[in-house]
Write a structure and sequence with these properties.
By secondary structure, the chain is an all-alpha fold. Helix content is 81%, strand content 0%. It contains 15 helices and no strands. Helix 3 runs parallel beside helix 5, helix 6 packs antiparallel against helix 10 and helix 11 packs antiparallel against helix 12.
Length: 390
Amino acid sequence: MFMSASRDPLFTPRFFLMCAFTFCVFVSAFQLFPVAPFRIRDLGGSTFAAGLFLAFLTYASAVFAPLTGSLADRWGRRRALVISGGALTLFSVTYGLLADYRVMLGLTLVHGLFWSAMLTASAAYMSGWLPPTRRAEGLGYWGLSSVLAVAVAPPLGFWLYRFGWGWMCLVMAGLNILMTLIAACLPPLSSAEAPRERQRLAIEWRILIVSFTLFLYAFGYGGVTSFAAMYADANGLTPKAIYLSVLAVTIIITRPFLGPLADRVGYLRVFVPCLGLIAVGLGLLAVGGTRPWQVASAIVFGTGFGTAYPVYAAYLLQRIEARKRGASFGALISAFDTGIGSGSLITGWIIEHAGYRLAFGLGAAVAAAAVPYFLVARRLLPPAHRVPAP
């Protein structure tokens, strides 16, 4: 198994094109996500209204992802990427022109539709041609392009915001145009990946049910991304972003090792321990918020969280038909995004009423429930050997 995996080509021109595409997508998006709440407050919105921006977009993406994934299967994944890129460019320009935060919040609901289309189509396109023996490794490396983008985008966004909201939106639009051009240059699809105009639109309910596992562990991630910096500030730590920085570094270091390991020894043998590490990492954060506890939590949580998604996706790809990859990733992303949005909102409410420790403790308990849930729910999926090769 290891020898065959080593001979399968992974780092091809198409792979690097998709990495460039994803990097542009996430640099553009993660300039907007942290800065938009400040823009809403500048326009007269409340702190609660500012927090609704990401919540609205995330929930809209979760609701529409099963449909947009199925549409990508029907119309073609490359075509869906080009259409999504054009739409995101239009949203970037429109955000720059709006002077009413209520209209801005309403626009995020439509934005979420095209954001989900981009996520589902890119995942389906990328996974469709990765070597079956190196899928976890390939998805893991590809995911690093978004991790690196998330690391550099927020500081860039806040720096541009100093020169004006319009300048930041203009840079976002430029990145989205570049993203669209890259999508248009992607190589033609194979027969297994080609669109099927007569294919019936359908939600992959079995995938959605099993992918509730991702909701359970993403719940804590939503709380961490929103409130880890505030937790550090409450404990007098500097820099405030220490948790997210250590988390990003941990993912970058561990993914190149754990992804290939999963391809060799089996996805279940890596995925289930990753779920356990996520729960333990959140538990460490609940125990204490000092620097040692935050760093230890970020390392443990990052090791599990950074590998869980690509390994789960690779496990899933063994059990779904090639023509349904878009719909299947739509169900997966729907569960994942719903977990992030719910975790952010509920964690914030608990922090306000009962403090950080109880809030992160709840995240740890919810993540721990992912292990037994997955082991039971995975029985809904067909065995790997029954799925025809793409």
